[in-house]
Specification:
single chain; 3-stranded antiparallel sheet; about 375 residues; mainly alpha; globular; 3 strands
Length: about 375
């Protein structure tokens, strides 16, 4: 029997909608000067972000009303499609290259980021596999290794774009799902022990990543190079004080801070809304984490528990990495802040994921 809509997690829904509202305001504020200079109107990016937000809310509404178990027949085609798109984006003249990274498909005003689709596909795919093979996961070679091999293919394709930040978020989500699925602790420890050298290699293999590590250790030694982003972000956060300089009055958004309304939007938010604004956003993400994991704990079956765990972890990990980068707690890597940063694929798919969480909450025990 279809559960009552009144049982869905209202607190989760409100936290996401407030994040979305804050994000839309700050995207407009951070993008207006550049949009006016480049397109002749300050509303260029606001109009597009609003369009994506509306589409995302529609997607969230639809996924919140479709029983989660109905997706099981579509999981394999969905995962296969995401793999094909990840391969396609790496092909010259097919994938769109921006700033040395080939992460987008499409053209004009419509582009798709396959890694965003792959994040949701990865969660669905392994939630289903782990729920079907729960007993087999106790065996390292017959259970864990085959699943790990499939995941490594996805990670390798995303890393090849290159997109280290998204790769880390996906790997972290996969690890948490393994833990929830009941994989033995010594097997998890073995995966971590094997993964750390690979992570170190990925961070140091490319010269620009090595420079980012050095800049992270002391950005002031590279003020006009790799440390520039970090320095400008810290200046923005520091100048905001407690209450901020006010919406629309960011100085860093006037061309000083690169990626001001995408990867580094949290710095503009801190400058314009101050410590109060940043604490509010962090608190909303903590509420999202609390409600998401609460839904997972109350889920009626292992599949929905893993699905809720994966979606929640993916969103929270991405937010953690983005905020860590902006506050110089982590080396610079290109990853957006969910619901806050400008971007269509990330916003629509993240809201669709929240809709799935809301649907699972309606079945909670």
């Amino acid at each position: 029997m279809q559960p009552s809509a009144s049982r869905q997690d209202f607190m989760l829904l409100m936290a996401v909608l407030v994040l979305l509202a804050i994000g839309t305001l700050v995207v407009f504020s951070a993008s207006a000067p550049g949009a006016l200079n480049q397109y002749g109107t300050p509303y260029y990016f606001l109009e597009r972000q609003t369009m994506w937000a509306v589409l995302g809310i529609l997607a969230m509404t639809v996924t919140s009303r479709i029983d989660y178990w109905r997706y099981t027949k579509l999981i394999l085609p969905f995962f296969g499609l995401s793999l094909l798109l990840l391969i396609a984006v790496l092909i010259p003249h097919v994938g769109i290259e921006i700033n040395g990274s080939r992460r987008w498909l499409g053209g004009g005003s419509f582009t798709l980021q396959p890694s965003e689709l792959a994040k949701l596909a990865l969660v669905f795919f392994f939630a289903r596999l782990f729920s079907l093979h729960a007993e087999r996961l106790h065996n390292f070679w017959r259970g864990v290794i085959p699943h790990l091999a499939i995941a490594l293919v996805v990670f390798a394709l995303v890393l090849a774009e290159p997109d280290l930040g998204t790769t880390i978020a996906m790997a972290g989500t996969f690890f948490v799902m393994l833990f929830v699925a009941g994989v033995r602790k010594r097997h998890l420890a073995a995966i971590v022990a094997a993964g750390l050298p690979v992570l170190a290699w990925a961070m140091l293999a490319e010269p620009y990543r090595r420079q980012r590590i050095l800049a992270f250790l002391d950005p002031w030694k590279h003020p006009l190079g790799e440390g520039f982003h970090t320095i400008q972000a810290l200046l923005a956060l520091g100048s905001g004080g407690v209450l901020g300089v006010g919406l629309g009055f960011s100085r860093q958004a006037l061309g000083y801070l690169p990626e001001a309304f995408t990867d580094f939007i949290f710095a503009v938010l801190g400058e314009e809304l101050g410590l109060v604004g940043t604490v509010l956003v962090v608190t909303l993400f903590l509420i999202l984490a609390w409600r998401g994991y609460r839904i997972a704990m109350r889920a009626p079956d292992l599949f929905s528990a893993l699905l809720a765990t994966g979606i929640t972890t993916m969103i929270v990990l991405q937010a953690l990495i983005n905020i860590g980068v902006v506050t110089d707690s982590l080396p610079v890597t290109g990853i957006t802040l969910p619901f806050i940063s400008y971007g269509g694929s990330s916003l629509v798919l993240s809201l669709a994921g929240v809709g799935i969480l809301l649907n699972i909450s309606r079945h909670a025990r």
